[in-house]
Design a protein that fits this description.
single chain; four-stranded mixed beta sheet; three-stranded antiparallel beta sheet
């Protein structure tokens, strides 16, 4: 299992995450559906890691309208997928 770090996210007009990105990585951008498949199959893990903040694992959540990606709540919003720069 490879650990992939996320530096930016793509969002649709409603603000939903549509892709995960890390400029310069061969796999980037990774579509939301592919990232969900990677996580659920155990092929890859996705993490947000910024200087001075602990790395945070991205998880798949089953919502009322389908599966989506999110990080766990912690002491900073710097690693929230919604708050990452656009890609």
């Amino acid at each position: 299992m490879a650990k992939r770090y996320i530096r930016a996210t793509g969002k649709n007009s409603q603000g939903d995450i549509t892709k995960l990105c890390n400029s310069g990585e061969i796999w980037s951008p990774r579509a939301k559906a592919d990232a969900i498949s990677d996580i659920e199959s155990g092929t890859h893990e996705y993490w947000v890691n910024w200087t001075h903040y602990p790395e945070t694992k991205i998880r798949v959540v089953n919502g009322t309208t389908g599966k989506y990606l999110r990080t766990d709540r912690d002491t900073t919003s710097k690693n929230n997928l919604d708050d990452l720069p656009d890609c």
